[in-house]
Amino acid sequence: MKILKIDPVHIKSDFIRQAARVLRRGSLVVFPTETVYGIGADVFNEKAVAKIFIVKQRMADNPIIVHIAQMSDLKKLARNVLPQALLLAKHFWPGPLTLILSKKREVSQIVTGDNDTVAVRMPDHPVALALIKAVKSPIAAPSANLSGKPSATDVAHALSDFGDKIDVYIDSGPAKIGLESTVLDLTVNPPEILRPGAITKEILQKFLGRVVDNKNHPKNKIRSPGMKYRHYAPNARLVLVNGNPKIIVKKMQALLGKFKKEGKKVGIIASKETVAHCRQADSVVILSTRRNLKMAAHKLFRALRRFDDERMDIIISETFPERDIGKAIMNRLRKAATS
To answer: Do 174 and 267 share a domain, yes or no?
Structure first.
């Protein structure tokens, strides 16, 4: 196992070449993106991609997002690329938007979860782009965490989950956004958001007109990562508290008192507006003010992982406004809280 520290501003080309050689020989590399860290394999090496499922303990029907570095890579993966896709790529790539497109035969069913579609995005991170270019092949890469657990937003999270099971880890500091990309299915009409992220429905509608949210019925085929009901989950039970700040404080205090009487170790995820009333908890993480949703998103998975490290029995989290990236925050919290 090797850890390569690569500054995204001053990229060490020799380190990129080392990591690229590891990928070309069929091994796995953990690398940074602007959303979360990914665990990558050469998309056209079936044996390498299969290792991702083994290491992550990932179900075979859960597709993997493929990362590209230039538009010419898209032609290797997708057929019948619609004008809608080209329009969105022009405006949002590189960036936190994944597009579901009809796949080419050359893309293995292992990558796509036995779907006839492929999920593709171009990450907005100089290290990720340099690595993909050096490999000279798109990289299949889900988030670098054990399946069902909170995503890795820095290399330490991935190391904690995988240790020496991964040949190379690239450490470029914390992920900028902290939540996974928006996933948009362009093979259906109207286009459908399968997973919310930083690129919101309102933004996408400015370019496409009508866009709908996915209902995520449990019997539907999984077209995108993040569609499993229990996902992003800490080891502790997660309890969500709804309402305005005054109601949230009242509910949190009641729950905290109840769980402490039961002898539980309790962690609380709070905003700056509510934190003063949570001091009797065993551990408290302040994400942000309730208005600063970007900061809340950035810190969410780090908070969940911290509580696992502290061996909390219960996590109580306030809910956040479902505007802008707040919708993605609540998507992750609700899935993490699903028993």
So the answer is: no
Residue 289 token pair: 């003010």
pLDDT at position 328: 97
Structural domain boundaries enclosing 26: 2-213
**Residue 35 assigned ligand-binding role:** yes
Q: Is 274 annotated as a binding residue?
A: no
The pLDDT of residue 20: 98
Cα–Cα distances in Å, from 296 out to 18, 30, 97, 274, 330? 35, 24, 20, 14, 11
Mean pLDDT by 10 residues, the chain (339 residues): 96 97 98 98 98 94 96 94 96 98 96 95 98 98 96 97 97 97 96 96 97 73 74 93 92 94 96 87 94 97 97 96 96 89
C-alpha dist (Å) from residue 110 to 151, 225, 281, 337: 21, 13, 44, 29
- Residue 189 assigned ligand-binding role: no
Report whether 229 belongs to an annotated binding site: no
Q: How many domains does the structure of the chain reveal?
A: 2
Handedness of CA 250, 252, 255, 257 (dihedral sign): negative
Residue 58 is labelled as binding a ligand: yes
Q: Measured in Å, how far apart are the chain's first and last C-alpha atoms?
A: 35
To the question of whether residue 37 is assigned a binding role by annotation, the answer is: no
Q: Which residue has the tokens 């905003």?
A: 271
Please list, in sequence order, all residues whose beta carbon lies within 8 angstroms of the beta carbon of residue 215, skipping any fewer than 6 positions away.
none
Specify whether 119 is located in the same domain as 12: yes
Is 181 marked as binding a ligand? yes
195 in a known ligand binding site: yes
- Taking the model in full, what pTM does it have? 0.95
